[in-house]
Each structure stands twice: as C-alpha cells, then as structure tokens.
Amino acid sequence: MNSVRSYLIFTLLFVAIGQASASVPLGGNRKGVGGNYDMYGCMQSNDYYVANFSAYQISPDQAKDSRSLPEAECIDLPKTGKTQIAIDLLDLDVRKKPVALKILLEDGKTIAELPMAIVKQGVLSITVDFKTAGKYQAVLTVDDKDLHTPLAVSALNIPITVAMVAEQSGGQNGLLILISVIGLLVVAAAYFVPRLLKPQNVKSAH
Q1: What order of strands is seen across the sheet that includes strand 50-57?
Q2: pLDDT tens, 8-65?
Q3: Do the beta carbons of residue 120 and residue 95 sit within 8 Å?
Q4: Which residues pair with 161 in a beta bridge?
Q5: Is 97 helix (H, G, I), strand (E, B) or coil?
Q6: Buried-most residue among 83, 92, 132, 187 (CB within 10 A)?
Q7: pTM value?
Q8: In terms of DSSP H, where are the helices of 58-162?
Q9: Cβ–Cβ < 8 Å for 161, 35
Q10: CB atoms < 10 A from the CB of 31, how many?
Q11: How many CB atoms lie within 10 A of CB 192?
C-alpha cells in the first residue's frame, strides 16, 4: 500500500508541474515562438534583474473603454501596429534607482525610448508603433551604482517578435498533459495491480 500511496503522490506532483510549466496556461489564448506565459504572467529576468512584461494591442476600430481592453500579450505579439508596452519592475530596490527603456529594431536602431528616471510606482509604460513584422528588443537599463557593473552588461534584454505568432491553444497543452497522465496510470496499473492481487503467504501459528 505504501507503493500505491507513493504513486498517487507522484501523479499529483506530475500534473501540478505540467500545468505550471505549460507554455500557455490551460485556457490561454496563444503561444508565441520563443515566448511564454506562466503562472506569474510574462516574467523576464537576467542575472541582475527581474521584471514582468505585458503588451496591449488595440485595433483602431475597437471601442476604447475599460470593458473592451485586450488581453495582455507576452513577448510574441500577434500583429503589427500601435502597442502599449508595460514593464513592471519586480525588484523593489530598483524602483529607487534611475531606469531607462529602449525599443530597438533587429539592427539596433531605436524606435521608442524612455529617458533615465526614477519610477517610484514601479511600472514603465511606452507606446510603440510596430510598422513591420519581425524581431525587436526591449532593453531595460538600470543606473545601479551598487553593482559596479557596466550598464550594457547588467541591462535586461527582452526579445520581442511581431506578427510571427504560432497559434497553439491551451486545450492542446491540456490534452498532452492528460495523455501523459493516462499513460502513467496504465503503466502503474500493469505493475502494481498483479502484485496487490497476489495472495500473501500467511504462516500458520503453531
């Protein structure tokens, strides 16, 4: 029975890990090439900083009210056009230091930027007009005197792709997880059931 209990615990852990590491949460809307969603949103990090990235793409003909705001996209954007990018600084001490943000083309040309400033509220917001599909980059720079590290080295570089999104529904990920769990159950049943049903030799007392 200890073996059965261990297996049940293992199965529950497997399901939890599978859902937490899925590229798109179950029921999510899309998965981009190289980007990911997780239980925390769209977290980006390097050896120095961690931030949460979100992008909102509003169609020109879409009604502009709070009830019709689009769902936040991760770093792979489904279309070109004007996009509101928000970066939440998750390191509390960074909110006390000057930060700057640049949006670059693949060739390194700057198409939008926020100058170095202290962002006490912890959220940088910038509007970018992505005119063409392709690869871009958001570069978050922190003037952190405590690191004694060049800004270019400690900068958080966030890759962005525009209009290069591969559709993949959350239901597909959920199906893969379900198939994996069923497979484990079948293998476990084939191994444990015969042993559980096997008569145990009981020594008669003399």
Answers
A1: 43-45, 50-57, 81-89, 123-130
A2: 444 444 433 343 333 333 333 344 444 455 545 799 999 999 999 999 998 766 655 5
A3: yes
A4: 76, 135
A5: coil
A6: 83
A7: 0.62
A8: 151-154
A9: yes
A10: 22
A11: 13
